Amino acid sequence: MHRALPVPVSVDAIAERIGGTVHGNGARRIARLASLESAGADAVSFLSGRRHAQAARDSGAGALIVSAALQAEAPADAVRIIVADPYVGYATLSQWFESLLAPPRAAAAIDPLARVDVAARLGAGVGVGPGATIAAGARIGEGCRIGAGCAIGEGASVGPDSILHPNVVLYPGVRLGARAIVHAGTVIGADGFGFAPSREGFVKIAQLGSVHIGDDVEIGANCAIDRGALDDTEIGDGVKIDNLVQVGHNVRIGAQTVIAGCVGIAGSATIGARCMIGGGVGVSGHIEICDGAIIGGFSLVERSVDEPGFYTGAWPLQSHVQWERTAATLKQLPRLRQRLRGLEARAGEPPKDPE
Amino acid sequence: MHRALPVPVSVDAIAERIGGTVHGNGARRIARLASLESAGADAVSFLSGRRHAQAARDSGAGALIVSAALQAEAPADAVRIIVADPYVGYATLSQWFESLLAPPRAAAAIDPLARVDVAARLGAGVGVGPGATIAAGARIGEGCRIGAGCAIGEGASVGPDSILHPNVVLYPGVRLGARAIVHAGTVIGADGFGFAPSREGFVKIAQLGSVHIGDDVEIGANCAIDRGALDDTEIGDGVKIDNLVQVGHNVRIGAQTVIAGCVGIAGSATIGARCMIGGGVGVSGHIEICDGAIIGGFSLVERSVDEPGFYTGAWPLQSHVQWERTAATLKQLPRLRQRLRGLEARAGEPPKDPE
Amino acid sequence: MHRALPVPVSVDAIAERIGGTVHGNGARRIARLASLESAGADAVSFLSGRRHAQAARDSGAGALIVSAALQAEAPADAVRIIVADPYVGYATLSQWFESLLAPPRAAAAIDPLARVDVAARLGAGVGVGPGATIAAGARIGEGCRIGAGCAIGEGASVGPDSILHPNVVLYPGVRLGARAIVHAGTVIGADGFGFAPSREGFVKIAQLGSVHIGDDVEIGANCAIDRGALDDTEIGDGVKIDNLVQVGHNVRIGAQTVIAGCVGIAGSATIGARCMIGGGVGVSGHIEICDGAIIGGFSLVERSVDEPGFYTGAWPLQSHVQWERTAATLKQLPRLRQRLRGLEARAGEPPKDPE
User: Fold this and answer.
1) Residue A80's domain is classified under what CATH number?
2) Domain range for residue A15?
3) Which 8-state DSSP code applies to residue C217?
4) pLDDT, tens digit, 9 for 90 and up, residues A196-218
5) Can you tell me the ipTM of this complex?
6) Is A2 a member of any domain?
7) Which of A97, A181, B158, C80 is the most buried (most CB within 10 A)?
């Protein structure tokens, strides 16, 4: 299942890459990176926490990345690579293995079927795929790879060493920082959704702002991040956004915030730094979520969140028959509360309702 | 922050554009359109309602678009432009500023890297970007701009003066009205989701209908609007749709309805005219929403809505700990109701439950 | 409304196609396939269940596909085509009519504006649209049609007789089975969403797995199906997925499962075979849904589902004013339960709460 490296590497070499200490035979050859369950003798795996200890003990892995505290959970035959944080060690190693597994890449080039305007500026070593379009005034930093079918609008800019996968669209004037990864089909800088109702129908509000995205940002596939009406939509450094996420106009997202798939953020909402927004969450417009808040999946954030913490709002799954009963009773809830109050009054109890 | 016009304009010129009356020095030069908070002396801003009155009084704007009723809220130094509806005035002005800010556009042309079938008909002044494909029998009205990477299927038609941003796909036979704006990555006319279960697995139901979209419609980025099974999917004049919206097969949407981002509308649902559908809403299949209904964000419309009004259904956000308690109690709700009934009976009260 | 066949067909020919028996004039010419309500004398329609019996009796259809049990509901003038399952009959017929309605297709060819790597392998009769890219090592089975603007990555494979509509992206190494239909804008194989938090910010976890999709799978427009972290994301034979669906990394979906639009499935979730997942559903990560489960639209599946059945969780729509009252009371629910318990204790009743 797991692809084997064309040339195996030693446990010592792995340990050096991830800053670990080897206990056991550092010369052992490793060809794969695998989960505890599927790792064989030619594979390295990792133990990221005590709840996987049993799986670690049962693993057939030839080498195990593990913390000092949990090294006793390694299988007897495995070479141990001791690191402070095995999950970070795994992440670091995965990047190295990816580079070893990748086919040798041709020198970066501009495909003859790409259309690069003479008034666009491209840094050294930029690759542009077939069918891609780079308009006048656009600037692409050195080392960028612009995928097939991407469209980079007038005056848009991409920082160095960024990767735009196929069919990404940057509207005119969008600014993307360094080391960005944008997955296929994502659209950045489309018009925010603004119309003034009038007697003759809606009058479109031209979206004169842009989108400004910091460094080290990753954005998933088929997202839509709108340009601002007057000011810019702003996404901070290190933000990670999953697939199919909508970011409305003039939204601001603080640094290092993580947003899971299918989230919708309405216009002018502000999300702080280091937040975690679960999958399928909705964020209403013009509200603020403070730094460090965690929003559970599928919740609607319909009001501002002023204190860090873990927040949730979602109907728990029920059998459909039970749900029908519960939903019917839910609609009676304010009346049930009144009836309870009535019984309490009858029993001579003091009022207990907040208002 | 806000881009300055290459050549500033006078307050008088702005007033003429938006049908306003100038109070103060109409010769003042204006270079920017800005929010009340960030406007400087070279900027025009607008006051759209009394709740922004304080911000208006504090604004450094050189000119203010304002209604007669609120003109006293303008800062002392600002030239006032009095209009009936400042928000419409702002919208109208934003379009003018956009045109002044845009780089001078090259004459519309068909890029040599576009593939336009000899049996497609293009009106005068149509521009087609690189990588775009226009198939046989397609008709593109005069003045349209077809973005890079768009694919227009056999026999599809686009009304005059429409803009298709990059990578929009119109499947064969789709009809789009005049002055349409379709943002990047949107797909119109893919097969509706229909399969007949059989003993040998699902039999695909070919989707023989199409999609018919009226005039003055705007559709956001990365939407999916499906073709009908037998009849057409129909979207009325002036409808505005935000990003990442799904419109199922045979849905009908009435004129001037506004649909926010991440909405999903299941097959054969009918939405009336002048409705407002909030972000993240779900609409079940085969139901009807009457004209003029407003659906709050993140609600599921699981039944027909027969009267105009404001409807909502979404769990309010709670701290996760409180949510866990509430969710557990929710499942007890039908039983709590029974217990309440029991206490009432014991107290000699008559039955109070609906059924 | 419904397109007429260029050359009408006889009722006998229709019956032969769908395996039915003709009662009446089998020589009657039929030019259209239409719903009961809109069918005229030149149209064939179908009656799929008793609840449409009145519409069938009132229909002007010239021919009706109907079961033996319901044939008495056919309008007097209609020729009856008796089949075991009229809905399957309609589905089968729709495919034939689609082929008759389609313009004669040019021989499959590789457009000169496509970029097909010399190290890609294409089967016989493969068509590749303008702007499409097929990278080195990719394999495209015979009879496939690769739409305009598609991008097929290094080493990806597509089984025979598959259709990729425009602007579909397959990342490197993705494997797609035979007879696949993938609608426009869908992205398969983008990186799963994985980052290890560290003191220096998030460390990207390279996604070394891939995506493996079985035979006879249809995927809607603008979906995003991520590649696995170590193992593959797996989608079984005959799975049908609607538009704008997100499938996270390492998700497994069993054969013949149907997933409606706007569903989000978080990483490492497992969905069984023959499930039906309603529109807008969210599935949490690392949970399991057993074979044959049905999840109602807009529900969050936040826990594993171990038994087949119909499950739902979604707030029922209310007027906004009622919703505000209900939502406020909901937050009091655990306290209301305590108060009820208090009253019961006072009345001398034994404790009734589960815990």
Assistant:
1) 3.40.1390.10
2) 9-101
3) -
4) 999 989 999 999 999 999 999 99
5) 0.96
6) no
7) B158
